[in-house]
Amino acid sequence: MWIDSHCHLDAPEFDVDRDAVVAAARAAGVGQIVMPAVEVAHFLALQRLARATGFAYALGIHPLYVDRADDDDLDRLRDALAAARDDPRLVAVGEIGLDHAVPGLDRDRQEHFYRAQLKLARDAALPVILHVRRSADALLAGLRRIAVSGGIAHAFNGSVVQAGQFVDRGFRLGFGGAMTFDRALQIRVLASGLPAGALVLETDAPDIPPHWLYRTAAERAAGQISRNAPAELPRIGAVLATLRGWTLDQTARITGANVRAALPRLEALFAGRG
Asked: Is the peptide bond before 95 cis (omega within 30 degrees of 0)?
């Protein structure tokens, strides 16, 4: 059984065929999906989706959404975490973090929301799901000041040294569609060489499509879509298996165990208590 450790199944790209997307994922052997929130306005819909599908979720405010959030949203997040304290489907605070790749974003505001959400995760005794884009050192600086119980550094593309620092703090590192491109040399080096216990698989669907779904700008302008989906996870896993010299069964078992270690509340769902 495969676990997709990061999928935005609540995204509007899935509104027309969400049930079919879920059915295709299950048919492909994806038995569990972790769905991170991106803003407070989406929390209730995400929780309803988790109940309907049996999948897991995280609550948080994404760094790309902090410019349209207000400080009261941090109070709303705190209240939502408290209200869902006994919900086994709530497995983390996320997606939170820092994005230093998109021009024009207010880095101070991102930092404010990041550190505030680390404190909420610490107080709730929950791991975090981190957005890491050209921001690994700044994220690590926050973690040194506000310790949390590990989690997942999603779509990791930092250095080997940075990877080791996250792992030392109890984090697993997410690998997905970007790993499938031959030119993604740094990501493939990390996926090949990091300790087996550091790796988790993800799709980030509908984003970060693997190479077999990629469309050029001209193709997209002509109406071709490149929507990623959780059913692609086993094929992404096959790329990791090739890089590591593992079988598919080993890859599913190792990466699945790593997700469960990173997000311990998942165990209740696998035990049938969800």
From this structure: yes
The Cβ of residue 69 has, within 10 Å, a number of other Cβ atoms equal to 18
pLDDT in tens, 234-259: 999 999 999 999 999 999 999 999 99
Give the domain ranges of the chain.
Answer: 2-270
pTM of the model: 0.96
Q: What is the pLDDT of residues 179-188, one digit of tens each?
A: 999 999 999 9
What digits encode the pLDDT tens for the residues 14-31? 999 999 999 999 999 999
Chosen CATH of 2-270 out of 3.30.70.330, 2.30.30.100, 3.20.20.140, 2.170.120.20: 3.20.20.140
